[in-house]
Each structure stands twice: as C-alpha cells, then as structure tokens.
Design goal:
333 residues; alpha/beta; 6 strands; binds iron/sulfur cluster
Length: 333
C-alpha cells in the first residue's frame, strides 16, 4: 500500500504553527503549504517562511490565487450585459477599466465579485485559500497517491468548529483518497502556545501587538478590539483597505464597496434597517448607492470609541467571539 503524502496547512497563526511542529515531531516526511491572500501583514508571511529555518523542518511553500482570466471574462460580461440592465454607460466604462488584475489576490477577488466578502458570503476562504491549495497542491498530489491534510483546527476556538471531527475522509472519482487530520482538535490556546514554546518557537509577533487572530490584516470578521488595535498600531493597513474600497466601488453594480459589514457600527446597522424598509426596489437601490455606508476609515474611528460593538461572550466555554472564521478546514485562523 502506498504511504500517504502528508501536507500541513500553514496560515502564519499559532494553531497551524503547532500543527507544523507536531508533524515535525512525528518524524514523517511532510510538505507545508500556505496561500498568500495578499491581505496578510508582512510579518505573518515572514513568520510562516521562517518555520523551516527555525526548526530544521521543510520550508513553507507559498501559493497565490490568480484571477487574470476571471477578470477578463467579467469585463466582457459587464460590457455586454450591464447596458441591458439599465446601468449608465459611464459606470460601465468605469467598471471595465477597473477590472484589471492588480496581482493582489484579495483585491482581484473583490474586483471579480464586485464586492468584498462578508460573514454571510465568505467567499474569500474558498477562492483565496481552499481553491488555491486544492488545485495547486492537493489535487496534483492525489493523482499520485493518498493524501493526509493536517489542519490546525481546535473545537474550543469557535462554535462553528465545536463538532469538527479529528479525521474526515474525502473520496473523489479518479483521485486517491484524501483524509483531513485535525490533531489539535481537543487543544486549548494555552496548549498551543505552550507546545510551541517547548519547541523554542516564538509565536507570530502580531499576537504581542494586540491581535487575537493573525490571518488577513484585517479580516472581514475582525472584532472591534482587533480593528482598534490595527488602526492604532498599523494605520497603513486601514489606508490600504480604504484604497481597495475606492477601487472595488468602481466595479460594483450597486456602487457600494465597503470592506466591513455595514452593521458593524450602530449607525451602519440603523442605515441598513432604514434602507431595507423602502418598499420600491429601484428606490431602495438608489438609496443604497447614495447611502453613507461605513467605510474602513469610519469603522476604524468607531472602533476607537466605547459606542456599540460586539463583545466576547463570556458565557460560552469556547474562545469564540462570534466573529471567527466558520470554515471547518481551519484555513483562516
Ligand atoms: S482571514 Fe478573514 S478575510 Fe482572510 S480569507 Fe479568512 S475569513 Fe476571509
């Protein structure tokens, strides 16, 4: 029987680093892979890439999504179909001009989709991580033999992952079997930090700078305190998101492109309720396009205040703040 190929998914966070160290401790040969979304802090990529040198283990292979073809197809679609939808020619020209690859996977994905991802439409994990690692690493490996994918998922980290199994088998016609392996499933955050410390491996430095999770910087699901920490310590990250919002708005049919969910601030939530109550669809669309939805700058300013905001739920016995990634595959921390 062919031995399985072990592939460890790395995100630059504490859990995937512990997963990498466990794989190393097991003595099995393995590959470590990471998808660079173009929205990580440079320290996160650097941390992931340093794991090999720090431990003597394999170098983390970095992959990226490429949206060149999808953007070209979208530009063609916009030019051909938006006129029939009554979209003004000026907006169509603006969208077609903006639908050019920037080489930043996160931004290119949003240009292609004409919007930023949200908690309800969290397509970022799928297109920036699962699809990239799936098509560029796992599928080619499964053509040659069975694969075990190691995932740094812990049940305690989120309600959505509370029932995640340690092992999960995936069978696909024409490919060898793949098994997901979640070796940290019963671990706590303290176990993870302690395990890495025993190896002499420091955590990603961003944890020491107020970040509860390190993945995208910021993540669309970032909690108020994370947004505040980012805006105070790394204002350039908010500047970048503000620039992306301007570019993305140009490709939005609704003329709206905000990074964070509108209802993250109390004012945005009230605005959303008001617009939702407008009965006429066309009037509602116009009101939405003209509405002052909270952009990244507004959200960052709100995050520095004591007004509103989602809080940690101390009643739950998980580390979940209700905002963490719901993916079962642990590709986002
Ligand atoms: S870290 Fe957040 S923004 Fe980035 S891919 Fe995951 S869910 Fe999306």
């Amino acid at each position: 029987m062919t031995s399985p190929q072990h592939i460890v998914n790395v995100s630059g966070g504490k859990d995937s680093a512990a997963c990498y160290l466990l794989a190393l401790q097991s003595g099995r040969p393995f590959r470590a892979v990471m998808s660079d979304t173009g929205n990580e802090h440079p320290d996160t990529i650097a941390y992931a890439m340093s794991l090999g040198d720090r431990t003597g283990g394999p170098q983390v292979e970095i992959y990226r999504a490429d949206f060149t073809e999808r953007l070209a197809r979208k530009a063609l679609y916009v030019a051909q179909h938006w006129p029939a939808d009554g979209v003004p020619q000026e907006l169509i020209d603006r969208a077609v001009a903006a639908l050019k690859p920037t080489g930043i996977p996160f931004l290119d994905l949003c240009l292609w989709k004409g919007r930023f991802p949200s908690r309800k439409a969290q397509f970022c994990t799928e297109f920036l991580k699962s699809e990239v690692i799936g098509s560029q690493v796992v599928e080619p490996a499964r053509r040659t033999g069975p694969v075990v994918q190691w995932l740094g998922v812990r049940r305690a980290e989120s309600l959505a992952r509370r029932h995640s199994p340690m092992w999960q088998t995936v069978r696909t016609a024409g490919l060898h079997t793949m098994r997901f392996y979640r070796p940290l499933i019963h671990w706590t955050a303290q176990n993870v930090f302690g395990f890495a410390a025993a190896f002499g491996v420091d955590p990603n430095p961003l944890y020491l700078q107020g970040m509860g999770r390190v993945g995208c910087f910021p993540c669309i699901n970032a909690a108020k305190d994370e947004i505040r920490a980012i805006s105070l310590r790394f204002p350039e990250a908010i500047d970048r998101i503000e620039e992306w919002e301007a570019i993305c708005t140009a490709t939005s049919k609704r003329g709206v492109g905000t990074f964070f969910a509108a209802d993250v601030t109390p004012e945005g939530a009230a605005l959303g309720r008001m617009i939702k109550a407008i009965p006429d669809p066309e009037e509602r669309r116009r009101a939405s396009a003209a509405a002052p939805w909270p952009n990244a700058r507004t959200v960052a300013e709100w995050a520095r205040t004591d007004r509103g905001g989602k809080q940690f739920n101390w009643l739950m016995d998980t580390e979940d703040d209700g905002l963490s990634c719901s993916s079962q595959y642990g590709l986002c921390e």
